[in-house]
Every structure is written in structure tokens, then in C-alpha cells.
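Hi support team,

I submitted a single chain yesterday and got back a structure, but I'm not sure I'm reading the C-alpha cell output correctly. Could someone confirm the output below corresponds to the sequence I sent? I've pasted both exactly as they appear in my results page.

Thanks,
R.
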Amino acid sequence: MYEKRPYYAYQALSEEHYDSLLPHYRTKINRLLFRMINYTQPKNLLEVGQDNGEAFQYMCSAKKGMDTFFIKSHECQVALKQLGAKLEEWKSLGCLHIGHTLYYKEVFEAALPYMKPGSWMIIGGIHATKDRERWWKELQKDERTVITYDLYDVGFVFFEEKRYKENYIVNFL
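Hi R., thanks for writing in. Yes, this is the structure output for that exact sequence:
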């Protein structure tokens, strides 16, 4: 979780210009997402939600050649249709990032059947609203999830069936 020394791509990524009007994470979170992708080496990465592109760029830079797809629709049905088509094409999902979107519950349920052992999710803004916070607590209790990490800005969900169910709160301020 905690960085011991900077990675090779940080300098180039920090020089990129992103839309500052759209929601995004702190640099510390983006760097953590980079390290997590670098460590887990997922086969593919799918992001759903309105974002300024910074987090997605950090994650894509962590593993060259990874299949990636970004869904940025304000309409739930359009996004779910795009999501379903990509999931059918890929057959399984290595990493899903549910960013700033109002239909986070629908995206989670649609993607869940494609999450295999070793797959994981990044869920942004888990404490952004009371409804989203309540849903995060339900997700932690859900038998379909195995390990969760609450880092306040984001939550990680892992689907390691051979592990005991655990919920962690990490002070990552």
C-alpha cells in the first residue's frame, strides 16, 4: 500500500494535463492505483464513470499491453449496454474501476458474474453520499465479496475465494 520509492512513470504522468473541472482522486490515490495494477497485473481493465482521465491514465501506464476500455455515459442504460457488450467480448474481468457515476450499483451487479478469483474492483467515492456509504457497508457484508479495503477515497474489493472474508479500514490519508 505504501510507497517506498517513486515509479518510473510518475514524472511523465504528472506532466499530463487533465480536466480539473471533472471529479478526480488525489495524486496519492492515483499512484496507489498505479502500484496496484503493477502488482496484480490484471488481464484487462474496465472503467465506468465520469472522470477527468487521470486515474485511468495512471492505471493504464502500470501495465503496457493490457486490454482497457472506458465507459463515460451519463445514461445508465447506454452504459450498461456498453458494459455488457465488453464483458461478453472479454468473458472475464481482471479489474473494474467504478468511478464517479450515479449507477454504481447497477454496474457492480452487471460485472459481478465476470469477476473470477484474482479479479478485483476499485470503487470510488465510497463515503461521498449517505446512500453510497450505506451501499459500501452492504457490499462488505455481501457473501459474494471476500476481501474489502476501505481507504476512505476509494474502496477495493477482491474475489479470492480461498481466503477468509475480511474487511479492512486503512488510514491512507
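A quick pointer for reading it: The chain has six helices and seven strands. Let us know if anything else looks off.

Best,
Support desk
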